[in-house]
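Technical annex, item 7. During the second reporting period the consortium partners agreed on a shared format for inverse folding records so that results from different sites could be compared directly. Each record opens with the tokenized structure and is followed by the designed sequence. A conforming record, contributed by the partner at site C, is shown below for reference.
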């Protein structure tokens, strides 16, 4: 089992850099930032994750870095490809790219974009096709319903070959996200409960996800399953590992005092 911190972006950039440095020092294996434009139109401070992650890459040596998750449908894929390649090379191949459809809808509607989920999903899938093509470092062109690329060789290529790992967030009980994740390198599952509140997953839930992904891929080799176990945890590290989880991810909501609470989790170290 590997252990990650997934931090909200609602703090001063320097504070987020220091949090990542503390995570590396305490023995965590990865540090992620949420990627948002708008969470509440009343106004919540939000830091750009890519700028912050560049600073984190320069201050750390070992810890894996990335977003969890970036809503690729609201981004230009060529710009996102350039940002991810730059971070992967700056960090000497430590990028993990977490992607999703995006939540809440205000991420799109605030800026005049449609938040219709089928359309967002189609745009996200095509954007990732373009990003992967540009990552190849080989001559690439694309003609699709949402994006077009005249033949171009997009250099430099990522440090990681054939490409950085891509983790896909999916919302259970809906299954289309699992199908999307199975085409890439990992899944970050979330689960809706009553009243659309998020529920934490159990080892049995993870075992079911592992079974689904194995059926779709034929194997779980090289595939990561990420569990956000609580608080409080709904199973032990060993139980989640036996169920198929490969990463344990601790995070916090964006409530008052979250930074100090997450800093305490970071400094306590991973629950190995």
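Designed sequence (site C submission):
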């Amino acid at each position: 089992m590997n252990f990650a911190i997934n931090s909200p972006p609602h703090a001063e950039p320097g504070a987020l850099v220091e949090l990542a440095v503390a995570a590396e020092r305490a023995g965590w294996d990865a540090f992620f930032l949420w990627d948002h434009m708008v969470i509440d139109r009343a106004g919540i401070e939000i830091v750009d994750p890519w700028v912050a992650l560049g600073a984190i890459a320069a201050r750390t040596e070992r810890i894996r870095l990335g977003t969890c998750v970036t809503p690729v449908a609201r981004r230009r894929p060529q710009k996102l490809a350039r940002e991810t390649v730059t971070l992967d090379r700056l960090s000497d191949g430590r990028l993990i790219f977490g992607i999703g459809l995006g939540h809440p809808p205000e991420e799109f509607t605030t800026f005049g974009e449609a938040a219709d989920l089928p359309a967002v999903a189609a745009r996200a899938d095509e954007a990732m096709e373009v990003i992967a093509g540009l990552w190849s470092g080989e001559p690439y062109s694309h003609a699709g319903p949402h994006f077009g690329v005249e033949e171009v060789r997009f250099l430099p290529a990522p440090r990681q070959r054939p490409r950085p790992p891509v983790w896909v967030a999916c919302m259970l009980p809906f299954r289309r996200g699992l199908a999307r994740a199975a085409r890439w390198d990992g899944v970050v599952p979330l689960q809706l409960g009553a009243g659309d509140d998020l529920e934490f997953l159990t080892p049995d839930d993870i075992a079911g996800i592992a079974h689904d992904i194995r059926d779709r891929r034929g194997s779980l080799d090289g595939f990561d399953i990420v569990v956000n176990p609580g608080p409080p945890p709904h199973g032990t590290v060993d139980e989640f590992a036996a169920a198929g989880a490969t990463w344990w991810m601790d995070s916090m909501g964006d409530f008052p005092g979250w930074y100090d609470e997450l800093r305490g989790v970071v400094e306590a170290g991973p629950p190995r």
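The radius of gyration is 18 Å. The first strand starts at residue 2 and ends at 7. All partners now use this format for quarterly exchanges.
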